[in-house]
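During the no-cost extension, the postdoctoral fellow (Dr. R.K.) reprocessed legacy sequence entries with the updated structure-token encoder. One reprocessed record is reproduced below for audit purposes.
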Amino acid sequence: MKCLDQRDPEPGAMRRALELAAAIGAPGPAIYPNPRVGCVLLAPDGSMIAEGYHRGPGTPHAEVDALAKAGEAARGATAVVTLEPCNHTGRTGPCSQALIEAGVTRVVYAQADPNPVAAGGAATLKQAGIEVEQGLYAAESRELNRVWTRAAELQRPYVTWKFATTLDGRSAAADGTSRWVSSRAARLDTHKLRALSDTMLVGTNTVEVDDPALTVRDLEDRPVGVQPLRVVMGERDLPEDRRIFDAQAPSLHLRTRDPHEALAALWERERRHVFLEGGPTLAAAFLDAGLVDEIVVYVAPFLLGAGRSAVADLGITTISDAFRPRVRSVDVLSPAAPGEEPNVRLILEPHSILEPQKGEQ
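Re-encoded structure tokens follow.
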């Protein structure tokens, strides 16, 4: 166990709790719908008693994990935890009650719980006479669970829209061919990003025409162990032999064309991060509905001059009304196969889909 600064042990304990929370690995289908949380228990003299972290759905929460290791030594301790202790019974009991029963006298947490179902733990602890402090490394805790936090605030899955395009904005040639617009390096990068979500989403036309597998695959093109849910939305029937319905990963057909209805249904199924890879019509529907939270674009250095656009008509007729997302990062992806040119990856965040940013006058 790491030694802490005995003069002010709580900041060091919180940094350690953040390390523990990240130890489970990147977010994805094995972790959602839960956040990553770490906890450190301190004795009255500032020394570390025990530490714990949450390992995924159905496992003890970070506080309970640490309390179990501490035993009777938890009485009179300070609990330093990255997220406000939960106040509800789900797969496990409320952490606020576990801390009270263990005899903890002080709780320091970083981030308030944005989930209205689980929030209220701080108030319960205070009512029990426990000293509570919030805000230590709050920004770091929020960043650790950036997608989960935003989904909890929105009460719907966070949506990442990914597409690949040529320099002139084409996602397919005039004859419909689109394999491959992006480079192998971009496709490998896409699989890394897919693995961070718990849901893959496309429309019925994409399934009917392109027949994608929508699985997360490794460098040898083999499906990884835990897969996101593959979802197709749309009202038309689909052939049963489409790859999205095979046994490589779970699948779901949502019989709706309404993005709000689709996300509500996925939220009810405890889905927290949707990776949207549908065609231009589905992309435009989500953009029009204001339901895109992040955009990942792979730009390949060639021109087609004609063909399918990455997004359908958004009703924008003048440059001043253009949809102008904020650029979060720009990266050049080095070639991963002989003869390929570098691709550029942009990650963007919409300012507001419902109120497009005006251009310079």
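The two ends are 59 Å apart (CA to CA). Residues 353-361 have pLDDT under 50 and may be disordered. The remaining legacy entries will be reprocessed before the final report is submitted.
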